[in-house]
Amino acid sequence: MVNITVSIPEALSKRLKRHKEVKWSEVVRKALADYVDRLEVVEGGVISAETLSRKLKEKCTEVSSVDLHRAIEFYEEGRKLERKRLSTIQASS
Fold first, then answer.
1. pLDDT tens readout for residues 69-90
2. What is the predicted pLDDT for the residue at 23?
3. What is the 3-class SS of the chain, one letter each residue?
4. Domain residue spans in the chain?
5. Tell me: the pLDDT tens digits for 14-56?
6. Dihedral of the alpha carbons of 25, 77, 43, 37, in degrees to the nearest 10
7. Burial per residue of 27-65, b for 16 or more beta-carbon CB atoms within 10 angstroms, e otherwise
8. How many Å from the N-terminal Cα to the C-terminal Cα in the chain?
């Protein structure tokens, strides 16, 4: 794994230190992965199977554990991303 250094304001550092139970490197890692995923969807118009699989695993551990409300939210989010992808493709054509 590669290490990176992130500079943050002193005030934010103090706030983070109040929550020692949080693994901040994991929070940053997930945030960076999510941001890059969104960039790639907008730029390339396609989300890889690996990315989709990772996102599904982050949302739940088993399909049977997903309640109907969460399933509908996930479906709607997918539809919104697909509409955005299609409009990006149409705009570039």
1. 877 877 788 888 888 877 877 7
2. 92
3. CCCCCCCCCHHHHHHHHCCCCCCHHHHHHHHHHHHHHHHHHHHHCCCCHHHHHHHHHHHCCCHHHCCHHHHHHHHHHHHHHHHHHHHHHHHHC
4. 24-92
5. 999 999 999 999 999 888 888 887 777 655 656 666 666 676 6
6. 20
7. eeeeeeeeeebeeebeeebebeeebeeebeeeeeeeeee
8. 39
